[in-house]
Amino acid sequence: MSTLLEHLQSQCEPQWQQYTQHAFVRQLADGTLPRHCFEHYLKQDYLFLIHFARAFGLAAFKSRNLTELKRANASLSGIVDVELDLHIQYCHQWGISQEQLENTIESTPNMAYTRYVMERGMAGELLDLNIALAPCILGYGQIANWLLAQPFLVLENNPYAEWINLYAGDEYQQVADAHREACNAVELSNLDGARLHTLVQTFDAATRLEIDFWQMGLDCS
Ligand SMILES: Cc1ncc(C[n+]2csc(CCO)c2C)c(N)n1
């Protein structure tokens, strides 16, 4: 018997592969990604993380018991107290100041993605929101592990090695495991066909929005 996430991933296999094996991440791994593309991505990702923190605030609101509330709270404080500070520090190493981050004009793929996730949460239940968040959280963990196993990976003198190691690291893998557990707390057999179809649509849309986010990084001028 498969889990809910295994089912969703299998229903969205081509998109999932396009997202997790995108040219952007391949170029991170072999170190050929133009620096300005990565800098553009980092600036947009700062705004992205702020909206994702808000989404976990919404997850707290949608929680129905202490277990769910604690999960949402841990994710919210993880982003606000740890990840955003790390992101600001990391951007600083790339020569991007906090002021530049705050003055970044949000791209339309970024807007589409973050607002879509929040819309799923507002219109639906906590599960809809968790599934909208899943490609983001689980995808990055999978991407980093996949990249580490690829023959085209070059870690020596690769300016993106730290990024890959961060997402492949134990700390991030635990964040991904916690979200997987939250999504899979629902038994697949307890969901009827229509409910499952809605969740497949949400997972598919969020996965396609991740593809657009990578593409935004590559297309920057
Ligand atoms: C476009 C985009 N997609 C996914 C992530 C990864 N990520 C974003 S929020 C979050 C939650 C972790 O507490 C994680 C893993 C990213 N940074 N940017």
UniProtKB/TrEMBL annotation:
Supply the alphabetized keyword list: Hydrolase, Thiamine biosynthesis
Q: What is its EC number?
A: 3.5.99.2
Q: Which InterPro entries match?
A: Haem_Oase-like_multi-hlx, Thiaminase-2/PQQC, Thiaminase_II, Thiamine_Salvage_TenA
The record's section on Pfam families has: TENA_THI-4
BP GO terms, sorted: thiamine biosynthetic process; thiamine diphosphate biosynthetic process
Give a GO molecular function annotation for the protein.
thiaminase activity
Q: Which domain of life is it from?
A: Bacteria
Its pathway is: Cofactor biosynthesis; thiamine diphosphate biosynthesis
Record domain Thiaminase-2/PQQC: where:
11-219
Reactions catalysed according to its record: thiamine + H2O = 5-(2-hydroxyethyl)-4-methylthiazole + 4-amino-5-hydroxymethyl-2-methylpyrimidine + H(+); 4-amino-5-aminomethyl-2-methylpyrimidine + H2O = 4-amino-5-hydroxymethyl-2-methylpyrimidine + NH4(+)
Extract one GO cellular component term from the record: cytosol
Purpose of the protein: Catalyzes an amino-pyrimidine hydrolysis reaction at the C5' of the pyrimidine moiety of thiamine compounds, a reaction that is part of a thiamine salvage pathway.
The family line of this record is:
Belongs to the TenA family.
Q: What is this protein called?
A: Aminopyrimidine aminohydrolase
